[in-house]
Write a structure and sequence with these properties.
The protein contains 13 helices and 17 strands. It is of the alpha/beta class and 440 residues long. Helix 3 runs antiparallel to helix 10, helix 8 packs parallel to helix 9 and helix 12 crosses helix 13. It binds 4'-deoxy-4'-aminopyridoxal-5'-phosphate.
Length: 440
């Protein structure tokens, strides 16, 4: 049973480092949005491998594509060398980039999102001859040194000294806690002033950076969609100042937010697009989309052993094909709006739901203390403890959710993009059970 496996893990604790056990189950099998544990209990999985499994668990076409590679005689590992499969995958991915990718080239960087972020930062430095980076509060870019340096969360940084120097953080818009500030007109003006007057001004102390890196919808930071006009303004000022704009689409990309890329909501074109998670259809793969004029690598300047995972290209290709041919982005956009309406109705009955936000199948539910004093924006204090309890109650009700944002107060939904309306109704049912179970 689950306990036996968990006890074995606990025994191994000193030898096998493992995820904190917020979700105490041992997984036996999974299909679609459903995970079954070793005791045969079923869970509706709204985490989907941290958003990696765009088509859910064990999609038959994805499994078949693995089978095809295995029986084709292709090597599993090819370094960065070309294969017909890599060729097909690259063509398919490029065609999904802005302008069908005609101004972009691809670079395979390694197995994880953080790998690709490292490559993007290095490339921006090389392309501009500058070294600074502007990043944003609540941004998440990975756990390697450079990626962690531009991550706007102090907790994981406090464990290690010596982050990348010259990283400046600016406030990211927040619909609930700062809806009018940096996100609105005043924020756009502040940003313009910052870039136009402060950068490279001796007295301001702000050095012109190589790049600005951001997520168009922050994931780990608590599901924060950036306003379109803010993103457009950032695109304009970075262009005017010759600063590269890096969009991290690792989590929000690949139809997750109801557009193929989350930056498409603002109609902007980044200089570098960071892609991982769903791009590999559930297997490890990371790729950069680079505007051709910034493709300044010389051979050997950025290499890595694991850039030729043929299985990941096969599962990635199948995923891209289904996302595109079945217009999953359109389906997901409509479902996201419907789900937000349902949750807004639930909010009236459960005031601990402070705010519901997000786009498509990337939805955040901020849990608050509604009986405490509201701040100057009329927003209640975040309640990380209750959110942790709700996560536990959801789990007991057979629902897997992740948390994020400040104090972990935001419950996050990142299910398979093929989730059905009936399954969303089951989610709502289980979530309500959890709220009742938590006595709120
Ligand atoms: N960027 C974003 C936006 C992410 O959400 C993540 C992972 N959650 C990463 C980068 C890092 O990816 P990885 O864990 O594969 O290194």
């Amino acid at each position: 049973n689950n306990d036996a496996f968990l006890a074995r893990q606990a025994e191994f604790e000193s030898n096998v480092r493992s995820y904190p056990r917020k979700l105490p189950l041992a997984i036996a099998k999974a299909h679609g949005v459903w995970i079954t544990d070793v005791e045969n209990k079923q869970y509706l999985d709204c985490l989907a491998g941290a958003g990696t499994l765009a088509l859910g668990h064990n999609h038959p076409d994805v499994l078949q594509s693995i089978q095809n590679v295995i029986t084709s005689g292709l090597p599993l590992h090819t370094l960065d060398l070309t294969t017909p499969l890599k060729d097909q995958f690259s063509e398919s991915l490029l065609s999904l980039l802005p302008g069908q990718g005609k101004d972009y080239c691809l670079q395979f960087t390694g197995p994880s999102g953080a790998d690709a972020v490292e490559a993007a930062l290095k490339l921006a430095k090389k392309a501009t001859g500058r070294s600074g980076v502007i990043s944003f509060s609540g941004g998440y870019h990975g756990m390697t040194h450079g990626a962690l340096s531009v991550t706007g969360n102090l907790a994981p940084k406090e464990a290690v000294d010596g982050m990348m120097p010259e990283v400046q953080f600016m406030p990211y818009p927040h619909q609930y806690r700062c809806p009018l500030g940096i996100g609105g007109e005043a924020g756009v003006k502040a940003l313009t002033y910052y870039f136009d007057n402060l950068i490279n001004d001796v007295e301001s102390g702000v050095r012109k950076p190589a790049a600005v890196i951001l997520e168009a919808v922050q994931g780990e930071g608590g599901v924060n969609p950036a306003p379109a006009e803010w993103l457009q303004r950032i695109r304009k000022v970075t262009q005017e100042h010759g600063i590269l704009l890096i969009l991290d689409e690792v989590q929000a990309g690949f139809a997750r937010t109801g557009k193929f890329f989350a930056f498409e909501h603002a109609g902007i074109e980044p200089d570098i697009i960071v892609m991982s998670k769903a791009v590999g259809g559930g297997l490890p793969l990371a790729v950069l989309g680079i505007k051709k004029q910034f493709d300044v690598w010389s051979p050997g300047h950025h290499t890595g052993t694991f850039r030729g995972n043929q299985l990941a290209m096969a599962t990635g290709l199948t995923t891209l094909k289904i996302l595109k041919e079945q217009d999953i982005a359109g389906k997901v956009a409509a479902q996201g709006e419907w789900l937000k309406q349902q949750l807004a109705a639930m909010q009236k009955r459960f005031p601990v739901i402070g705010h519901v936000r997000g786009l498509g199948m990337m939805i955040g539910i901020e849990i608050v203390k509604p009986n405490e004093a509201a701040d100057h924006m009329g927003s209640f204090p975040a309640d990380g403890e209750l959110s942790a309890l709700l996560q536990k109650k959801c789990f007991e009700a057979g629902l897997i959710l992740e948390r994020g944002g400040r104090h972990g107060a935001v419950l996050r939904l990142l299910p398979s993009l093929l989730i059905t309306n009936d399954e969303l109704a089951i989610f709502l049912d289980k979530f309500e059970q959890a709220l009742i179970g938590a006595g709120v």
